Amino acid sequence: MRRAVVLGALATLLAGCGGSSTVAHVGTVTITRDDLDGAVDHFRQEASAEGRPFPEAGTPQLRAVERQALGLLVYRAEIGQSAEKMGVPVTEAEITSRMAGGGGESEGSEAFARDTVRAQIAYEHIYSKVTAGVAPVRREAAMRKWIRRLPLRYEVGYEEGFGPSS
């Protein structure tokens, strides 16, 4: 398994956290139950708006949605930290500018939308750095190679019951 469960570190983090419990730790980023619930709520709202059914609480189908949402949050944390390390952090001004003219999101969806925009901008910044000096026909391949190596850059630990195979 390429991502080890780091229960000791997570227990330490949990001891220092108030409110929402930790479900995963990605490098220096902590993903909380509130973060995960916000992502799942966003997908629930999308399904409702599109007239699609959404899994009921306590079902294996909802657990699958939670695992997928957590995978997305882990990826976003990896991308965001990578942009910082590469010297191309995302600014609040960039996020605000990109979101200008956006639709009326509910408070939970607004946070999810901002995080989505932040990850998109971080990816764009990284793409520019990774592909600088690369022939245009090779840029996509260079970025795919960089993305494949992304999980090797950060230690990811999951709280019991939240790992990819849980």
Count of helices? 6
Whole-number mean pLDDT: 85
Considering DSSP H and I runs of 4 or more, what fraction of the residues is helical? 55-70%
CATH homologous superfamily assignment:
Porin chaperone SurA, peptide-binding domain
CATH architectural name: Orthogonal Bundle
Q: What class do helices, strands and sheet pairing give?
A: mainly alpha
Numbering strands along the chain, what is their spatial order in the largest sheet?
2-1-3
The CATH class assignment is Mainly Alpha
Our measurement of the CA-to-CA distance between the termini, rounded to an integer number of angstroms, reads: 13 Å
Radius of gyration: 17 Å
Instruction: Enumerate the spans where pLDDT stays under 50 for 5 or more consecutive residues.
Output: 1-18
Describe this structure in words.
With 166 residues, the chain is mainly α. The protein has one domain (7-158): Porin chaperone SurA, peptide-binding domain (Triger factor/SurA peptide-binding fold, Orthogonal Bundle). 61% of the residues lie in helices and 7% in strands. The chain has 6 helices and 3 strands; from the N terminus they run αββαααααβ. It has a 3-stranded antiparallel sheet with strand order 2-1-3, with helices on both faces. 22% of the residues are buried. The model is unreliable at 1-18 (pLDDT under 50).
